[in-house]
Amino acid sequence: MRAILLAAGFGTRLRPITNKVPKCLLLIKGRPLLEVLLKQLKECQVGPFLVNTHYLSKQIEKFIKNSNFNTEVELVYEPKLLGTAGTLMENLDFFKDDDGMIMHADNYCLADFKAFVEAHNHRPLGCLMTMMTFTTSEPHSCGIVELDDQGVVTGFYEKVKNPPGNIANGAIYILSRELITILKTDFKDCKDFSKQILPKMLGKIFTYETKDFFIDIGTETNYKKANEHCS
In the chain, what are the domain boundaries? Predict the structure, then answer.
């Protein structure tokens, strides 16, 4: 299964740490986060990969060129940021008319990606995609989902003050080939995946909840937590 990793952002919440280093190359226990993610995915038979770049793109290009993944990663530079959905729309053909994964490259995630793919392959009838979720202690800072008894999303609350629960969207998705076909025609002008696409998919999103460590390193506090976690 091919995967798109979103790595173009500025990492503004982590400044000044990200003034000279892109967020996806920040070190987690001595290794760049992007390396951690690519290694995990490859070990679970996910790949090849497309990585979009913008901010400090030359550093990411150099890292990939000198890494063990240089033959498996296609880099796509965006002169102007396209947004999460915009990047996806521009690169839907990368999936070669098959199911594909898309994820943010700023999550330190120790989830079992093989189990995630397996869950997607056995999703309920009518579900067009599978979302990875996790339990959060800070629901106001996340996209929170409501689920039915089959684990299908019935409600979505993007960073609201008092969300109804603590099951959070991990921003890691597997898109079915059926959905990819729909995206090409019905959502081609969308820029924001969470705001413009997910709300239109209620009742069609299966979920896989990881119990393993999962954290968005986008703040200095969370970046510290990621480096302190004992795996």
Answer: 2-228
